[in-house]
Amino acid sequence: xxxxxxxxxLNRICFTPTKDAYISEFYANKNFGDRFYxxxxxxxxxxxxxxxxxxxxxxxxxxxxxxxxxxxKEATLRLWIYRNEVPCGKTTDLCAYxxxxxxxxxxVTWNNRPLIDNCHSFCTTVxxxxxxxxxxxxxxxxxxxxxxxxxxxxxxLLKCDEPFDSLLGFYSREFEDSTYWPRLCVSYGVKCCVxxxxxxxxxxxxx
Length: 207
Known about the structure:
Layout: E1 3-7, E2 11-15, E3 19-24, E4 37-42, E5 49-55, E6 70-84, E7 92-98, E8 122-126, E9 133-138, H1 140-148, E10 156-159, E11 168-171, E12 183-195, H2 203-206
């Protein structure tokens, strides 16, 4: 018997963070895991960079997870940008890197920040004046790897390597209005195994 796959219509689920924090090069030993905001990029010159860490658990909200035997169609990181200091005439590439070490929301600092996978990044370009809207980063390949168990999910680190001041600010999961919390939105379908071949009954079997 030969089989194939029948695909159900796509479903969509959005996860909110289980932990998030920003870290500051200027305040290298200070933790900011309980703040309402997340920051990235250089603020006031060299030595004053901000990065943010964020973790989504694909089995949260009473394990309302993506079912087994599914395929990931698309995954998007969504951040509500409320502050944008990218200067006129320039753009900045904000990138998300897979984190490869565990970290604690209320203990992580610039000096003890976890290692990241620098070989894989997921980026979007931010223009001046883009504010009070959802900033989106396509992280489909990474979420596929998390779901398939190829990569351990220790979250993401958000950073930018531009050598000029371009601070970006987003709301964190501590912000009072959950409408503006970060989100990981995943579109997926469920594969159902089916028999695609129906052999005719032979004359011998009919007898």
